[in-house]
Amino acid sequence: MTTPPARKVATAKPVPSSLPQWAKAKPQSRTAPQPVTAARTVKQAKGRPASEPEVPTPSMPVAAKLPYARGAGKARRSASPKAPAPQTGMALHTANGARKYLTAGERDAFLLEADVADRPVRTLCMTLAYAGCRLSEALALTTDRVDLAAGVLTIESLKKRRTGIYRVVPVPPALLETLDMVHGIREAQSRRGKNRSERLWPWSRMTGWRAVHAVMQAAGLDGPHASPKGLRHGFGVAAVSAGIPLNLVQKWLGHAQLSTTAIYADAVGAEEKDIAQRMWR
């Protein structure tokens, strides 16, 4: 018995699409579209010719989008005038022209009023006037830094980057005698131990400033020059007027630069007349 041949099952052939190849739909990604940023715009613009300007985007400012806008902005900024830089450094006058130093007559009037003040206030005022030191440097003066035999004060320069820098300033005998009488310099130096280095004025800086300012007011002095700083400037002006070399004045005042001390050569008024009188003799 022969086996009948197997039937062939007809399968459906795929119907060719009538749409062209470019119109066929492509699967789309469901990720959110990325925002256009300035970095992407610049990256996309690298392949463009140099003559073709960048296309403005919402995230870029107008000045950054167009080349000619950037150049115009620079031209406008360079055309605007600049304000002058403020004057720096030490000066003998304020911005309004007010004098910042005491004259010889004002210093004498100040010392006369200091003679009738309390004894510690008197010695502080005399030290500021005759040594030309800063108020903080005077308040830091100790008994062992008063050399009665040599006639000098050893002052620590506090306006430095490091401590332990001293300068020796000669002072008149009247100041040394008053310091010994009021603060007992000889007796303190004869002791041993830490008592030899006691501060002459155990005050704060504000207390010392108020004491000096009260004497200024009693002498009828008012203004920017009526201050411990005015006494220091007055010392520098008086030293230059007396013919002291600038390098010595620099050493006594503790200036790091000689150019800072040279401002006292610009003294005006009676001090300048005293300097000019040397040419008339």
Written account of the structure:
There is one protein chain. The protein is mainly α. It has a domain at 104-280: hpI Integrase, Chain A, CATH 1.10.443.10. The chain contains 13 helices and three strands; from the N terminus they run H-H-H-H-H-H-E-E-E-H-H-H-H-H-H-H. A hairpin with a 4-residue loop joins strand 1 and strand 2. Helix 4 (104-115) packs antiparallel against helix 5 (119-131), helix 5 (119-131) runs antiparallel to helix 7 and helix 10 (228-241) packs parallel to helix 13.
Q: What does the secondary structure layout of this molecule look like, with pairings?
A:
Layout (H helix, E strand, L loop, with lengths): L37 H7 L17 H4 L1 H13 L24 H12 L3 H13 L3 H5 L6 E2 L4 E5 L9 E5 L2 H11 L1 H5 L15 H14 L9 H14 L4 H8 L4 H4 L8 H11 L1
Antiparallel strand pairs: 1-2, 2-3
The overall average pLDDT, rounded, is: 78
Instruction: Write out the CATH superfamily name of one domain.
Output: Intergrase catalytic core
Q: Can you tell me the overall shape?
A: extended
* CATH topology call of one domain: hpI Integrase, Chain A
Q: Report the top-level CATH class of one domain.
A: Mainly Alpha
Largest sheet: 3 strands, antiparallel
Give the helix level as a range of percent: 40-55%
Low-confidence stretches: 62-69, 74-88
Tell me the series of helices and strands, N- to C-terminal.
HHHHHHEEEHHHHHHH
- Taking all Cα atoms into account, the compactness measure Rg is 42 Å
Strand content: under 5%
